[in-house]
Each structure stands twice: as C-alpha cells, then as structure tokens.
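Regression report. Comparing outputs from two consecutive submissions.

Submission 1:
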Amino acid sequence: MSPRGAAPREATKVQDRGWAWMVLLAVVLLQGLTLGFPSCIGIFFTDLQHDFHANNSETSWFPSIMVAVLHAGGPLCSLLVKRFGCRFAVMLGGLLSGVGMVASSFCTSLSELYITAGFITGLGMCFSFQAGVTSLRYYFVRWQALANAMASTGVSLGLTLWPLLSQYLLDEMGWRNTFLIFGGILLNCCVCGAIMRPVQLASKSLLHPARPGEEPGREAEETQLANGGSSPHPKVQPGRRTACFHVLKKYLAFDVFCQNKGYQIYTIGVTWMMLGFALPHIYLVPYAIHSGVEERMAALLISVIGFINIFIRPLTGLLSGLSFFTGRRIYLYCLAVLLCGLSNFICIISAKFSVLILYCVTISIAMSGIGALTFQVLMDVVEMDRFSSALGLFTILESITLLTGPPLTGFLVDITRNFHCVFYTSSFFLISAALFMTFSFCALERKGKLKEASNAPLDNFSKHQRNEILTEPLSERQSPPAEVRITNI
C-alpha cells in the first residue's frame, strides 16, 4: 500500500472518536455561553428603560445589534479560522465578549451599550460560536448529524440557566454588576477554545497532513478559490478587481449562491424567517410582565423553553440521522418552522401564566427542530469544502433581518400599545418562510427527477455500448479503444 493511500485511514483514527468528543463537549459549552446568552436580555428591559428613559424600540436595538453581529461576523470568522485555526478564533471571541460585557457595566447611555454589549460582545460570541461549529466538521463524519444535534443542546442549557441566573443577580445587585459578572463568565469561551487542539487530518482534496496549527482541507479550498476554481498554477497575476472578486467568492460564497439552487432557496427562506424568529425570545418576558405576571415567573418562561430543548434536540438529531430522512431533512426543518409560527397564536389567546407555559412547551419543541437542523441542512445542500464560506454568507444575510426585525416590531408596539403585534408579526414571517422553502424544494426535486428521466436513455445506451466493447474477444482489439463518455450537463 502506498503512503498516499494510507493517509485517509490515518485520518479516520481522529474522527468520530477519542478527542473528538472532548471537542464536542467544548462546542456544547460554547453554544450555551454564546447563543443562549441573548435569551436573557429581555429580563433587563424594564431596568434599562427606567435608567435610560427609553421606549421599546430604542431598547430592543441593544439585543438586535448583539444577535445581528453574532451572525454577521461570519465572513470575518471564516477568515480567522482559515488563517489561524479554530482554536485562535474561539479564544479571541471569548476575550472580546468578556471585555465587551465588562465595559457595558460602566455605560452611561444606550448608545454606549450598543457598542460595548451589542457590537463588541456580539462579535466575540460570533467568533467563538461559528469557529466551534466549523471545528465539528473536521472531527465528525459518521456521527456528524448527531454531533450537530448534541452541540445544539448547549443552546438549550443556555436558555435554561441564563434567565434564572440573570433574574437572581439582577435582584441581588442590579444590572450593572450583573453585566460585570457576565463578562467573567463569557471568558470561559477561552477555556473551550484551548481544548480545540490543532489536528492533522487528510481531507478528500488534499491527502498530505496539514501543517501544525492549520485546519485540514484549508489549503485545498484556498488554492482552488484563490485561482477562481481553475488551474492551481496561474501564469498571470489577477488584477485588483479580479482579486476582489476572488476574495468575495472565497469568503462569501457568492458563486455557490448563484449556482446552487438549493443553497439559494435555503438562504433566502431562513433570512426571511429570521425577521420573526427572534421576536418571541426578546418580547416574551416584557409581554408577561406587562400582562401582570410576576418578574421571577416571567423569567422562568424562558428557562422552560430551554429545559425542554435539552431533551428534544438530541432526539431530533437522532431522528434526522435516520436513512429515511437522507435528502429529506429540509422538509423536517420546514415542519418545525411552521409549528413555531403556529404556536405564536397561543399567546394571542391569553396571557395567563398557565397558557404561557403551554406556549413555551409548544414553541420549545419547534425550536428544537430548527436549532438541531439549521446547520445540518446547510451541510446537506453545500459541499463540505465550501461550507465555511457558505456559512459566512448565510449568516451575514440573516443578520440583516435579525437586526431590523425587533426594533421595527418594537416601534409597532409603541404605536399600538399592544404586544399582540409581536406574535402576529412573528407568525407571518415564520409560516410564509416554511411554505416558501417547502414548495421551492419540492419543485426543485421534481425538476431534478424529470432531468434524470430525460437523461436515462442516454445513460443506458452508454452502459450498453461500453459492455459490448468490453466483451469483445481480445484478439479482435489489439489496442484499447478510445473511451467515449456521455456526460449529463
């Protein structure tokens, strides 16, 4: 066996076993510290409005900027991962998020809070979260669906613990000291990053081991994209305009968006969905307090959502990993989005605590499906050697809607003085996004089947012709005949 052929088997010794599970544990904690954190911001709404004399729209910009930057920093995170590896990006993110929250405890205006807790902390959480998600694709192959689902349980842990901790610290020492403590907690992302030691794997496109400190497959992707997908040894240096195009193509995957219809439909659908997805997380606690629910009980609602997520997300991951759902995970995802949109009508019926608990149970089940499948579906529609750059474009587009959705809805609440606008708006965007993705993927699948059916006779003819050639007596063909390939374009 040649050394080149032995490389893939050496790679499998690291994947799906051993240290890979330690990395998975680190990603679980990262998702709890980062994605779970914005869920507790609604608890501070009343205190922030009182201290800064702000309305719902002005206050909602704070979590909106945080969540938007958390997603929009994807291309920059992709650059950091490619240049320095996942470990560096995660640890830098932990440092930024911790410093941002410490600085926010000294803010004297909402505009300062937008910069410290919104931009700096959001960017740090982006680096830690997205670099952690990217690291899983290097450590897991066979159990990738399960690993993604298990990692997403970190969000559930965050949703469960952050609100309870926030309410306790807020009652004991106020929001400023609470933010100071949060800064120290978020520094633990650096510890999670330290666990992600550089690995030497053999990728499908590059069989020799990666250099220490590099992530596997990075050279192959960079070489291919830097040359525009052409020959790896260009004779002419590209101009400035061509170089800019290659950079955009490399880190934002515009070429994938234009050529891959599945990725295009999925990105547009999720971007539209995000206009309404974050609204219940931000406004549920203020809505409950406004309706007469005690503050501690209102904070408990978010924890109920997170607690149920802990058990449902792994089950969703196992379910989506079944062979029956291979190629059909997008429909399971659309069903979860549709259920999430329909569940918002429960809050419109009544604001009693018992009814809100029922709402939390229902939306938690739907959110479990969305959280467990979002990145798995993205991996299904995009080739893995382009996943990092495709994730960057995917997150930066959805960040635009995440940024604008809550403030615009807060403006409607300020005008109408009715929190029902939040749930009507959320339901509209979620339901319409689910229907759009379902019908679009059905049409795309039908088109693919028709194309395969139309090309089937050509394929059968090619196979029959090749079999006749291969079964000729050896004496009748002194030299190997030229092989004719019929390709499907």
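Submission 2:
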Amino acid sequence: PFCSCSRRKMSLKSERRGIHVDQSELLCKKGCGYYGNPAWQGFCSKCWREEYHKARQKQIQEDWELAERLQREEEEAYASSQSSQGAQSLTFSKFEEKKTNEKTRKVTTVKKFFTASSRAGAKKAEIQEAKAPSPSIHRQASIETDRVSKEFIEFIRTYQKPGQDLYKQCKLFLDTMSHKRDLSIEEQSECAQDFYQNVADRLQTRWKVPPEKVEKAMDEVEKYIMTRQYKYVFCPETTDDEKKDLAVQKRIRALHWVTPQMLCVPVSEEIPEVSDMVVKAITDIIEMDSKRVPRDKLACITKCSKHIFNAIKITKNEPASADDFLPTLIYIVLKGNPPRLQSNIQYITRFCNPSRLMTGEDGYYFTNLCCAVAFIEKLDAQSLNLSQEDFDRFMTGQTSPKKQESDSFSPDVCLGVKQMCKSLDLLSQLNERQERIVSEAKKLEKDLIDWTDGITKEVEDIVEKYPLEIKPKSQALAAIDSENVENDKLPPPLQPQVYAG
C-alpha cells in the first residue's frame, strides 16, 4: 500500500530516540490500510479527496436548499403583502442579510472540517482558479469579434517582427478611437483612412514587405479593426443614414410595378437557369447587410454583379456589356429592396480601404450600385418612356401595367388562370375607359362653364360700351273721326250732294 515517506522517517526517528510509536496511529483515519498524512488531517490522499468531494457536494446541496427556501419565503411574503395591505414583506436588504448569514455559517462549518493547513495541492489550485477573474465577465465583444481577433493574431505570427509592429499599431488605433467617440463620423472616417495609409507605407518603407503581402495584410487589418468598431461607426445616431434608408425603401416599394421591359432589361426570367441567377443575385445583395467588414460587403456586391452578367450572357448568348448591366442591376435592386441600403453604401465609402475602392472590379461594381440607387431616387415618367398620367396612376396604385396576355401562356397553364387573366385585362380596359369618360365629362363641364362665363362677360362689355337710353313715350294723335277734335282749323266735313238727272 501507498505510504508517506515523511511518516516513515518520523517513525524511525522516534524509535531511535527510544520513543515507542504505535503503527496504528500512522494509518489513515478512515481505516483503509494506507498511511495518513498530517497535512491531510491524518487521511491518505485518496480518502482526503473523497471527504473533500463529499463535503463539497453537501455544501452545494445545502446552498440549493437554502436558495429554494429563501425563494419560497419571499413568495409567501409577497403573497401575504398582496392579501393584506398592512402586512409587511421582507425587503431586499433583509433577504440579502439573511442569505449572507446563512452562507457564512456554511463556510465556517466547512473550514472547521478542512483547516488552513489542509488546503494544499489541488485545493490551493482550485481556490486560486476560483479567485481568478473570468475573462468572460469583462468581455463585451461578441463571438465573431473573438474569432476575428484570434484569426488576426494567427495571421501576424507569419510576419514575425512586422507582424508584432502591425499588432501594436492596430491596438494603438483602437485605443485612440475609443477616446474619439464624440467626433463626427466624417472625422472618424478620416482617421481610419489615414491609419490605412500610414500602415501600408510603414510596411513598405520600414519593413520592406512585398506589395502582394502588403495588400493581404491590409485586408486583415481592415477586417480586425472594423469588426471591433462596427457597432460604433455603422449607421450612427449622429447621422441621417437611417432616415435615408427608410426613404429609399419607401421609394422602392412604390416602384414595385416597374417591369423589365420598362427598364430595357435584357434578361428573360422564363429561362430556368436565368431565373436561378436572378434569385442568387437578389440573395447576395440582401446578404450584404449581414456582413461587418467593408471588404465582405463589397464581395457580396461583386458576387451579385457576376450573377447578373451570367444571366445576361445566357439570355443573349453573347457577353454582356455595361449598357446591359446597369439596367439589370437597377431591376435587381428594385426587386430585392435590400435592407439599410444607404447605410451600407455610406459605411463602405467611409471605412473601406481606399485602394480597393479606387481599383479593381470591387470598386467598379460598387460605383454601379451607387449609380443604380441614384437612378431609383430620381426615376420619373421620362426615364421609363411613360406619360406623366400613367406614371402617376402607377405610383398611386390606381392601376398597374398590363399583365401577360393569355395567348402567350404555355399550354400547361390551366384554363382558370387564363380566364382570370382575360377578366383582369377586361376590367383594366373598362377602368381605363371609365376614367377617360369621367375625364372628358369633367373637361366638357369646364368648357361649358368657361363658355357661359365668356358670353356673360362679352354682353357686359357691350352694354358698358354702348349704354341703352330709354326715351319717354310721345303723346298719341287723335283720330280723325273722333268727336273730341281740338283743332278748329280743319275744314268742315263734306256733305253729300244730290244731282237731278
């Protein structure tokens, strides 16, 4: 059996001095047959561990029972306070005091069993580990931030001394930015751009790092610092980015009726392969909002653009041109309505590595996306080759563009769908006719009112220019045969004369 060397030496020394030592006193107190150790209160190492774990489990169980009992007492006190208004419930201070006293009593009991001299070896290690502060308590970064930090540390190890200097520069920049939260977003953007330039120059001039490695290092630097700064610099409250996002989303929802034919999009979604490409492009442009690093957001725009080029190529059986790409990108943005579109564009513009935006396909595709958003914001009837009346009706939802004619459906489409489309077309035509009749009737009514007002005004002008003078009536002439003859100068009336014959 296992024995303690110190216990053996003590027994031999005692026998040499003539002191009789009972060997039974050297054995473990538990009676397992092994030798005990004074440092473990006379227990062997195995029995001491068992006793320690038993006491620890007992303490844990008692703590659980104490917590449950205190919770029940608190609930009963709360119930009694609700039932009788005069009853007094246990306050939080009393609860904490009672709990502290109970825990102190339990700890004292355990200390009596395991004295200070017995806490050696594994016990000391466990106590030190328990007293050591847990890094998760003070850590505020997310899981993604921790992962990016580990990847950055693994990356800079391959650069040796330049990597150490790079890490110091990044830490210094993050500490500096933490004290510049009050600055405007434009000033923080300038700080980030200056940092990118200084780091690149430092790697090239001081450490003589090759250009391809410098580019790779700058990508990792951007990924590290922007992942940690994302929640502070993306769509900050001091800007109107959120207001612009809502305006763009509202504008895109109002333009839901825009068809590919109106934009002259050379893409036929009837082809299954092209339809899949369109869906993938929409997915990529929407996924941009879930990324934190500007380079990753640009990668989503690039993947979306490549899917668009493939869709155009399959439809036209020839390589796509820039004139075909931009209208299709506008159609994808209208159909996908990406979340926080303006905030993502502003974030990329402010904090992306300038060398990536000014050169390469990422910068080209990002420029086209900015042009597409600007076109959507200023889109009008002339841009879609529509009349202003039709454009206004489509925007207000009074009507919508004509649907697909029933004759163009495939033979597999059921008759109900065809009949429904015919009915919808007929209703749309009747609605247009009714609107036209109402418009013409209102125009006729306005013309009649204008004509009446014009005639009335002309008559008033003539009357005003040539006023009507009414003269008094002249005295009536007396009749010749009237008895009331006032004029005596008339000759007497003729008398008939009879001639003898």
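Expected: both submissions complete independently.
Actual: both completed, but the second showed a warning that disappeared on reload.
Relevant detail on submission 2: Residues 52 and 123 are 9 Å apart (CA to CA).
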